[in-house]
Amino acid sequence: MGFSHEYPYTDFHELNLDWILSKIQEFHKRLDDISIDLLDQAKAYTDEQITIRLAGVENDFADFKREVKSYLAGLDDRFADLVKYVNDKIEEFEIQIPAIYDSIESAYDNANAYTNRAIEDNNTYLLQAIINGIGGIKVINYFTGAQVSIQEMFDYLAALHAVGGIDVDALVARAKTVNEIVALNATVTDIVTNGNTIIV
Description:
Strands 1-2 form a two-stranded antiparallel sheet. 74% of the residues lie in helices and 4% in strands. It folds into two domains: 18-139; 140-198, no CATH class. By secondary structure, it is mainly α. The radius of gyration is 35 Å and the shape is elongated. The chain is built from six helices and two strands, in the order ααββαααα.
């Protein structure tokens, strides 16, 4: 029977730090899915309400226009100035209604942009909070018996595979300039795995 990789553990032979990374990715995807779902629902609801309200305004205006025009049609020439004034106002309303639609659409677009930005900022904050929280998790380094951070454990395990690697103290002690290191024409992998023998 093989090892289970379902939960985090610090077994000397089977250190499962991938579990933590997969959990971060899983939670990040959940945040994205929730954000998309909420935005879709909010947009659908807002679109529906705007359509309902605007249809109501159009219907109310059509009723108003019909009633007023009907009333004005019954007036004689003595009220010509009043009829002209009211008709001019009706024309103004007809111009104002599309302008109101444009204003609502613009406000809606701005609100969407603000909401999207707020969600992005919140996702960034949550991800950073998760990363900060994970940074405080300690695991046991069974090579040394010490409790160390996950990053320190990664570094330690990586050092086991980079037996010819060079640490910062050794690099500083060798007092090489940037130009001297560049002149070695070594790749980063070469330096990580064999820096102790390459940088002398």
